[in-house]
Structure to design on (379 residues):
């Protein structure tokens, strides 16, 4: 399966990212567009020499640790159990997709750029994991990995169109639509009856990216997801376990006496899911941004290398603040950037409970958001 044929150079995002979910949620009015632009105006942040050097060392690490034969990245495939990440190492399709996104964020595309061959091998491995139903899975990986893999294929197709990639993407996006349950969300595996916000945000972003490159996404699926995410919002605390502005982990536990949990990562997921679905205003977004910006809710730096949700949380929080603009963006990015850079290993990697390839890929994507190469990060 060859993905390294001739392809166009990466295009500026203003040209590649069409109106968010255009054709799914509809284009805003001219008045609304003007209001949005005033509200999301953000300060430009340039990547300084220290950050650029850190990113280059990290990408070189990822380049060296890609399996030469399969194109996969080996990392921990598993699940959270009682605040621990239980896993076994395997060829991780989700981590491979994230590594591919890290290379794309640097401007490389299949066969082009300093990491073009790495991108091609990532695409080949991801496509090899698409089963007949469109589910992208390998060695027991679940819907998290499916969504990241779908998102990666959409970003690749948007930058370097190829018919084989489009067909894999179409099947993967349809699997997400088919897997949405009656609540409007998604869970670990297709067909699950319950939902959670952390898996739902991944699916929403994958659908958004697919739609942006011309894959049909039903309007009803997006609206159903919006309704689910909004039901997850904690507007008013009714007991000590709740905090207004946060988002529930599982919405069905809201009623009546089974409070779910909330966290920085879950709230970042909720806000970013709404942005990804084309919702830019509302109490859920404003309340969620306030929750995330509160320093008492921020994950401690001390947990960066031994937790499983530090990078996941900041991956979505950084997107949320990038979309929100000022006064959040220009304060948030430098602060998180400095935290991440302070923990980079001598070989260019980062570490967490999932594994060094996952943490390194996530760190690279987060640090490169100001570069705006990935269409998913454009408004």
């Amino acid at each position: 399966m060859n993905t390294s044929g001739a392809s166009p150079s990466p295009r500026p995002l203003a040209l590649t990212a069409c109106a968010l979910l255009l054709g799914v949620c509809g284009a805003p009015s001219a008045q609304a567009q003007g209001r949005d632009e005033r509200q999301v105006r953000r300060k430009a942040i340039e990547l300084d020499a220290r950050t650029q050097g850190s990113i280059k060392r990290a990408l070189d690490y990822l380049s060296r640790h890609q399996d030469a034969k399969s194109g996969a990245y080996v990392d921990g495939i598993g699940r959270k159990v009682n605040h621990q990440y239980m896993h076994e190492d395997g060829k991780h399709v989700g981590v491979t997709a994230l590594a591919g996104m890290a290379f794309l964020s640097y401007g490389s595309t299949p066969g082009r750029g300093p990491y073009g061959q790495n991108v091609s091998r990532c695409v080949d491995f991801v496509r090899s994991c698409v089963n007949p139903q469109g589910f992208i899975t390998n060695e027991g990986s679940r819907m998290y990995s499916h969504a990241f893999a779908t998102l990666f294929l959409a970003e690749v197709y948007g930058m370097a169109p190829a018919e084989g990639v489009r067909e894999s993407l179409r099947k993967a996006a349809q699997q997400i639509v088919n897997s949405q349950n009656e609540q409007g969300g998604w869970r670990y595996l297709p067909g699950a009856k319950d939902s959670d916000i952390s898996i739902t945000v991944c699916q929403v972003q994958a659908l958004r990216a697919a739609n942006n490159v011309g894959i049909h996404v039903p309007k009803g699926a997006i609206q159903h997801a919006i309704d689910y995410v909004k039901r997850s919002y904690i507007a008013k605390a009714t007991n000590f376990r709740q905090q207004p502005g946060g988002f529930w982990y599982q919405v069905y536990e809201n009623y009546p006496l089974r409070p779910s949990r909330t966290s920085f990562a879950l709230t970042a997921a909720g806000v970013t899911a709404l942005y990804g679905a084309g919702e830019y205003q509302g109490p859920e977004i404003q309340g969620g941004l306030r929750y995330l910006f509160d320093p008492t809710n921020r994950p401690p730096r001390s947990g960066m290398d031994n937790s499983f949700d530090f990078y996941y949380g900041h991956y979505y929080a950084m997107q949320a603040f990038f979309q929100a603009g000022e006064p959040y963006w220009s304060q948030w990015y430098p602060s998180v950037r400095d935290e991440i850079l302070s923990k980079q290993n001598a070989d260019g990697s980062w570490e967490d409970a999932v594994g060094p390839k996952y943490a390194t890929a996530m760190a690279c994507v987060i640090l490169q958001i100001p570069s705006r190469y990935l269409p998913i990060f454009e408004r």
Observations:
- Residues 186 and 200 are 5 Å apart (CA to CA).
- Confidence is low (pLDDT under 50) at residues 1-35.
